[in-house]
């Protein structure tokens, strides 16, 4: 009989879609930065904290709640659909209110909060995406809870493809008419992509909802009413929304303050926006690119942990936490090494921006802590410890905000980069410590830390040697040389980890040598 692991299957589906989406988004960012420039990227990035606040109010918490309750009621399909309908009703109602307020007050928000009148038209369009996003998130929450990741995954692809195509088409029409392309076109593309993803998920749910519901088992209990489901969703979503609103508010304050603090450091308004756009619109997308994998794990861990907790399977939670920690650490070490050694070439080749390359190198140290914190936070949320994750995130944001307020006027953008690292290390440590209080997490420094470090340096040396022989020392900085060297480094690194295994003493030994001696 074939064994199927929903966590592994869902992670693979989401990861595949995530990587394709990120690749499309990566080239889209390059195209967009050439189209609107670094200052335009800064303006475009400036409106996202406002969207984050709206998302935290009406979309994200409800999606998380729907996912968790659907996962805990997976054996009762009627209750699963009740939870979805309740979440959809709550989320869509709140999204209409958010849309109206943002649309009406967008000039005031642009002038008084973002300190940029040019953001007002973009905020109006972004307001229209909120109800669309609410529908999309509610349906995705239902399928995540069911551990059926294919529909959310394909909706990601649909959203990105429609966004890229609509922006490209609109840009060509604008340029052909002799007009200047502005960041407004990117926000319009965002709305088009979200609308396409909503239509895709809505159509998918409409098709699957007519499948017959199996009769509930005798032990399944009574079926929930819609009002009971709404109360359950609100019990989790309200504190989660309050937590996320506070966090989003602080993130918005940080985002708005960075350009102003850079001006206090001595930059002009245009220079400050350009630096902010380079950091968040260019460099961070390299750092976050591998997180398509770790984010997929985090998304699938939440319902899996919720289900395991409802069945009192503590050992399953421990296994998932231990495996996630080791995996994220291995991925983080690989990405950190690649970005340190090749970050400058990436910034220059892809964005024609040396500052972007410098940012990528400096932000490389974030990778392992960022990836571990993401998965550990998802495990805590799956166990219902949302107030704990809120406290940890709040501490992390306060640390980062302190570096922005007090450090940037003295040390410039370097203070912001260092603050990001310190805050992420703190968040990773807090999440990991909390998870270890509720579940045993296996970690041994020698096999779990030393092995991937040794594997990376060996892989990097081998790839660089092969690249120099093939392209010459100067050819390593070309696009072909960079792709070859980084790709070969990753391949050799994965193979080195694959052919080694831990022994009983916590060390590691080669599978090949064991095979030769007949021990396996």
What is the strand content? Answer: under 5%
Radius of gyration of CA atoms, rounded to a whole number: 24 Å
Mean pLDDT: 82
Q: Give the CA-CA distance, first to last residue.
A: 25 Å
Structural class: mainly alpha
> How many strand segments?
2
Give keywords.
2 strands; 2 domains; disordered C terminus; 520 residues
Report on the architecture of this protein:
This protein has 520 residues and is an all-alpha fold. It has 18 helices and 2 strands. It has helices spanning 6-46, 48-58, 60-72, 77-113, 120-145, 150-176, 184-208, 226-265, 269-288, 291-310, 314-351, 354-363, 366-382, 386-411, 413-438, 445-471, 479-498, 511-517, and strands at 500-502, 508-510. Strands 1-2 form a two-stranded antiparallel ribbon. Strand 1 and strand 2 (508-510) form a beta hairpin. The longest helix is centred in the N-terminal third of the chain and has 41 residues, at 6-46. The radius of gyration is 24 Å and the shape is globular.
List the helices and strands and how they pair.
Layout: H1 6-46, H2 48-58, H3 60-72, H4 77-113, H5 120-145, H6 150-176, H7 184-208, H8 226-265, H9 269-288, H10 291-310, H11 314-351, H12 354-363, H13 366-382, H14 386-411, H15 413-438, H16 445-471, H17 479-498, E1 500-502, E2 508-510, H18 511-517
Antiparallel strand pairs: 1-2
Helix pairs in contact: 1-6, 1-9, 1-10, 2-4, 2-5, 2-8, 3-4, 3-5, 3-8, 3-10, 4-5, 4-8, 5-7, 6-7, 8-9, 8-14, 9-11, 9-12, 10-11, 10-13, 11-12, 11-13, 11-16, 11-17, 13-15, 14-15, 16-17
């Amino acid at each position: 009989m074939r064994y199927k692991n929903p966590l592994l299957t869902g992670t693979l589906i989401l990861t595949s879609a995530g990587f394709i989406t990120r690749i499309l988004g990566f080239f889209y960012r390059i195209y967009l930065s050439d189209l609107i420039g670094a200052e335009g990227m800064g303006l475009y990035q400036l409106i996202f904290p406002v969207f984050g606040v709206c998302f935290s109010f009406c979309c994200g918490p409800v999606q998380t709640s729907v996912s968790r309750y659907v996962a805990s009621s997976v054996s009762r399909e009627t209750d699963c659909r009740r939870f979805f309908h309740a979440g959809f009703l709550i989320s869509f109602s709140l999204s209409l209110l958010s849309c109206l307020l943002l649309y009406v007050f967008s000039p005031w928000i642009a002038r008084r909060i973002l300190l940029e009148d040019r953001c007002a038209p973009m905020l109006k369009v972004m307001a229209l995406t909120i109800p669309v996003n609410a529908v999309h998130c509610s349906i995705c929450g239902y399928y995540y809870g069911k551990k059926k990741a294919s529909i959310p995954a394909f909706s990601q692809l649909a959203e990105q493809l429609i966004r890229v195509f609509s922006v490209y088409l609109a840009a060509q029409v604008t340029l052909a008419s002799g007009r200047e392309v502005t960041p407004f076109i990117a926000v319009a593309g965002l709305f088009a992509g979200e609308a396409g993803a909503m239509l895709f998920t809505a159509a998918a749910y409409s098709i699957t909802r007519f499948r017959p519901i199996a009769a509930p088992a005798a032990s399944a209990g009574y079926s929930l009413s819609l009002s009971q489901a709404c109360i359950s969703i609100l019990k989790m979503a309200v504190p989660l929304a309050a937590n996320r609103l506070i966090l989003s508010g602080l993130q918005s304050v940080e985002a708005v303050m960075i350009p102003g603090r850079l001006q206090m450091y001595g930059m002009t308004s245009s220079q400050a926006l350009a630096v902010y756009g380079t950091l968040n619109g260019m460099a961070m997308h390299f750092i976050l690119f591998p997180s398509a994998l770790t984010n997929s794990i985090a998304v699938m861990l939440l319902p899996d942990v919720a289900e395991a907790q409802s069945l009192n399977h503590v050992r399953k939670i421990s296994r998932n936490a231990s495996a996630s920690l080791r995996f994220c650490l291995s991925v983080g070490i690989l990405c950190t090494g690649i970005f340190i050694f090749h970050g400058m070439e990436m910034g220059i080749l892809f964005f024609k921006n040396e500052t972007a390359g410098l940012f990528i190198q400096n932000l490389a140290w974030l990778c392992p802590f960022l990836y571990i914190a993401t998965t550990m936070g998802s495990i805590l949320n799956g166990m219902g410890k949302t107030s704990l994750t809120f406290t940890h995130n709040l501490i992390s944001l306060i640390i980062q905000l302190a570096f922005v307020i007090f450090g940037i006027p003295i040390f410039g953008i370097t203070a912001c980069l260092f603050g990001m690292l310190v805050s992420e290390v703190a968040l990773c440590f807090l999440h990991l410590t909390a998870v270890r209080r509720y579940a045993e997490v296996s970690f041994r420094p020698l096999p779990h830390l030393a092995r991937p470090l040794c594997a990376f340096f060996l892989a990097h040396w081998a790839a660089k040697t092969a690249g120099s022989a093939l392209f010459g020392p100067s050819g390593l900085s070309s696009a072909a040389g960079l792709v070859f060297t980084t790709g070969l480094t990753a391949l050799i690194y994965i193979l080195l980890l694959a052919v080694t295994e831990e022994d009983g003493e916590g060390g590691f030994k080669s599978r090949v040598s064991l095979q030769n001696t007949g021990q396996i």
